[in-house]
Every structure is written in C-alpha cells, then in structure tokens.
Amino acid sequence: MRFDTRLLDEIKARISLSDIVGRRVSWDRRKTQPGKGDFWACCPFHQEKSPSFHVDDRRGRYKCFGCGASGDHFRFLTDTEGLSFPEAVERLAGQAGVALPAPDPQAARQEKKRAGLADVCEMAARFFQTELAGPRGEAARAYVQKRQLQPATLSEFRFGFAPDSRDALKKHLAAQGVDEPVMVEAGLVIRPEDGRPSYDRFRGRLMIPIHDDRGRVIAFGGRTLDPDGQPKYLNSPETPLFHKGTMLFNAHRAREPAFKLGQAVVVEGYLDAIALWQAGIRHVVATLGTAFTEEQVLRLWKLAPEPVVCFDGDAAGIAAAHRAIDRIFPVLKSGYSFQFSFLPDGQDPDDLVKARGVTGFLEEVAKAQPLSEAVWDREISAANLDTPERKAALEKRFEDLIGTIRDERVRRRYQLDLRLKLSNLFYEQARRRRFAGAPGQPGSGGGSGGPNAIVTTDPGGRILSAPQGPMFGTERMICGLCVRFPHLLDRHIERVARLGFSDPLHARFRDAICRVASDFDNLSVSDFYETLDDTFYQLLGEVMGEAGADEARAGTGTGLGSFSELAQRFPLLRKGPPEDFIEAVFLHFLDSLELIALEQDLKQELDAAEIELDEGSWNRIRGLTQDLARRREECAREEAELAERARKLRAAPAVAS
C-alpha cells in the first residue's frame, strides 16, 4: 500500500519521535534538553556505554553517531520490531488518531483474497489439531512424546496431524463451504494435470503451522512419521500468502525477546527451534530450508545486528553455513553481520540441550565465530599454497567474494583485513620452507626477545634488540590496533602516515601497513608480500601474539591469532569494549604522539630563537605555544573521559567477541 506524504507528515506531527523511541531507551539526563526537542541516549541498535544516539524532535529524525543508524518514526518501528512499513504506519496512525484512507479497489480485492486464504489455513490448522488428539493421531502423539515435547509446547505451536488419507482435509474443508480452487491456491490440495481427482498435499505427517508476522497461519510444515518416507520435511508451496524465501519460522514470537537480548539464534529446522523455545531460549528462529536468501538476511537483522547461525557440526551443517555465507556477503552493511556456531560431535540443537541443558547450548553459542573468521576458515581449509599460482588463486577467491559486498565501507574493511591475513600466511609458509628444522632460526620456534622487544638478525645471524623510546608502548599500541582493527587504519590513514615514530622499526612497519591499505588496485598480496622484510612480520607476529604465529605456521585458525600481546598492553580488549571506545583510545594515542611532535617543533623554534629572533619566529613560537596548550588540555580531558569509561567497562561483565 502506498501512503500519501501528507498523511505520513500528519502522523509524525501528532506523535513525537521521542515518545516512540523513549519506550526503548533511557534518555541521558546530562545531554538531553527536552525543551529544545534534543534527546540523547545509548543506541538501541548496537552496544555502547556512552550516549551517541540522537533524536531531534523538531525534525522528526534520529541518528546514531556510533553505528550510523538513522531514520524517522516509521523506520524506527520497522528496525526495532520487525514490522513492515505498512504495519508501522497502521500502528502509529492508530496511536495518533489519524484515519487511514480506504485501499484502492484492486488492493482491497487482493487483501480480501489473502484474508480468505488465511481463513482456510486456519480451518486446516484446527482440523490437524483435532486429528492429533483423535484416534488416528496415536502414532503422531507417540512421536512428539519421544521428542519430549510438552503439552504446553504442542498447544503454543498448534501441532497437528494430517491423516494418511487421500482427501480427509479436502472433505473437511468442502463441508465448511470452501471451494476446491481455494484449497489449491492455499497450497493444501494438489490438482493433478492429467485430470485425476485432487488430493491432500499432506498425508501421514506431523503438522506444524507456519505463521506470518501477525501470528496468522499461512502455511504448514509436515514431518513424515514413516522412517523411510521422503521427503522427511514437506513445506507448503508458494502461495499468495506464503513466500518461502522471505519467511522465518517463529519470527513473530522471537521478535521481542531477540530485541531485548540483542541476539537472535538461527537454526536449520523448525523442530530444533521449537525444542529451544521449550527449553526457555525464546529468541530463536529457523530457516525454511538450508539456503539463506537476501530477504531472510535482512529480516534477521531486524531481530538483532549479529544473529548467531547455529547449524549442526556435521558436513551437511557446515556446507549449509558455507552456502549462507555467500548469500550474506552482498548485503553486509556497517553495524550488521553474522556469527557462526558449529555444534560439537554432529549434534543438533535439540540433542545438545537434552545432553547439556540450556547452559551447555548457550556456552556453544558464546563461542560462535565472527563471519570474517568463518569465511577465512572456509577458504584456507581447502587451500593448497605450494605454488605462486595457487597463492594467487586463493587471493582471487577472496577478492571475488569481497567484491560482492555492496557497502563500500564494509568492503574496504574486509579487503584490508584479508590482505594482512594473507600476507602473514604467505610469509609464514615461505619462512617454514626456508628455515625448516634449523634450530634457533626464525620459524623454528626458538628465541624470543621478551614482551616488549622486537628482534631481528643482522647478516651475521646475531640477534639485535630494538631500542625502546619514551613513547615505545604507545607506538606499539598504534601498530597493534591498526592490525587488529584495520578499519581504524583505513579511516585515519592520513594521520597515521604522518606520525613521527621514534622507533625506526615502528616507522617501517607503519609505512608497510599503510602501503597495504592504500595500494589495493596496483599490487596483489602474492606480489608484494615478499617485498616486506622480516622485521615487518616479526612485529606483526609480536602484536598478534605467539598464538597467531603458531596458527599461521600450522595453516590453521584465523591467521590473526589471539592478539595476546596487544591484549596485555590493552587489557580492556578482553572485555569486548564497544568499537566507539576502541576508536576513542586509538585517537587519543594519535593525539599523544602528535602532541610530542608539537613539543619538538616548539623546542626547535626556541633553540633557533636563541641565535636569532625575528617577528616571524616570535609569531610561530606564540602560535605553537597556544596550540600546544590547547592540545594538552584536550588530551588531559580525553584521558579523564577514557579513564572513567574504562572504569565502567572493567566493572561490566565481559562481552564475547
């Protein structure tokens, strides 16, 4: 349905945006000025500790300066509650007391038709429920008892049974006055093309209704009770009501719990979803097939910004997850992604809950891999990198996949992340070949310069330790954060490139990663990784920690390791702090180094003034002095604010990263 702009403006004029948003957030008292229509809160779309979400009542717009989410009254409801746009308009119109226009005749006819089909599906659901409780439902009742499904669960999900009869449902619906063409259009009856009599689509199956966002029955899933029966699960066909590629089973129940928890769990089958719901995990949905569609991805993001895809840990489950990755990549956008949890020992969610309880299942969910790690593992596990051509082929596969991402910011983030990973992987492989079995040589596992030392070797093989300057730790942190969070490097590359590092190894490392970040189009990883000297990779391995080097040498894992050394220097990383805090710390480090450079510039001017002082020198000294005082004050204020945020983060429970 199309809505006139004047109607939408009238709805927005009668109900303030802050009233709608205020049901989901707590306003920050220090920054909010209700009299000016100016409201601030922590963003409801991503985790953060300081308020960066702004509502402007005068303009009827909201914007988060952390994740970039923005919109109006209707967009807020569609993004927080999973409503369609017409549903959001209908709800707010009711709250605002604005009458909606009558739909056009064609739309009215279509809606009436859909409502009629929904009524027929509801009749079928009641018939199936009655049959489950009757004499013919004995085998189905035995099956649900074996699955340990409780009566309350059977009632909530409206389980039923389709008798193993050619036309039991058809006769029932006909007795209710439903015409045969309507039964066919609803997907309940099949009419053969050869002129034979029509017959029930579902026969001898345990029946599970599929609901739309309003909770209406619009389709069915049927599970065969015959051990040899095929297909094992049978869904309704495409109908005017039911579009398999856009639906998520249990979405209407999971919507609110998922929003409150900020998490959604996605499983393969509806019986798995039902088992988890029965166990108390209410933020669970299921796909209606093993392959995601883009529409389902977008619907899942309405439930949570990073849904956890929880598939069986067997070959079929892993293959299904890999197919999902290819569907997800094109629609990736800032602030939205997926995580992947592969259950152990080939168990499905129902098996795991029965064996280890809800706690055991949630422990597995908490160990879920980010999408970036899942795609890395997928490609590396099947890669043979023993020739330049095969290295180039691996790089090409990554480039092709990343190239499908439409969001430029996300695409560049993946490009930089993967270039660093591939460069390190190729280097470690070459190093293993060069130094295989040579004790004390790089790659043999011998020798370490301690947590704060970068070691390299001169032509004679002697180990040299890099000197530590007064800002050694800050410089090392900047290097580590650029690798661990490559989007920070990409976003602030000009400032990073201009920094004056006191340690020459840090400066060379910085120059190399800036080249990696900026030279996407002209140089491939397989071409340039050998041009980087050993010190680059030694520092790369050091900021990532020994786990990263071990994984790369073994050809397993993410290739970026645990960043244990970086976490030692920045312990709060273990708490999974929000990205805006990490970026604020990163910028503070940049400010600190720039402050030192400013102090050095002032010292040089003062030293020169002792020899000769003219008006130009005096103006430069005065300007530098004023700038230095301002920058020192800003750095001190930043440090105090970061210290306060850090204190709150330490007191908060850790967030799985």
Automatic annotation (TrEMBL):
Residues 599-652 form a coiled coil. GO terms for biological process: DNA replication, synthesis of primer. This is DNA primase. The gene is dnaG. Monomer. Interacts with DnaB. Contains an N-terminal zinc-binding domain, a central core domain that contains the primase activity, and a C-terminal DnaB-binding domain. Residues 262-344 form the Toprim domain. InterPro entries: DNA_primase_core_N_sf, DNA_primase_DnaG, DNA_primase_Znf_CHC2, DnaG_bac, DNAG_N, DnaG_primase, TOPRIM_DnaG_bac, TOPRIM_dom. It comes from Pannonibacter tanglangensis. Its EC number is 2.7.7.101. RNA polymerase that catalyzes the synthesis of short RNA molecules used as primers for DNA polymerase during DNA replication. It catalyses: ssDNA + n NTP = ssDNA/pppN(pN)n-1 hybrid + (n-1) diphosphate. Keywords: Coiled coil, DNA replication, DNA-binding, DNA-directed RNA polymerase, Magnesium, Metal-binding, Nucleotidyltransferase, Primosome, Transcription, Transferase, Zinc, Zinc-finger. Gene3D superfamilies: 3.40.1360.10, DNA primase, catalytic core, N-terminal domain, Zinc finger, CHC2-type domain. Belongs to the DnaG primase family.
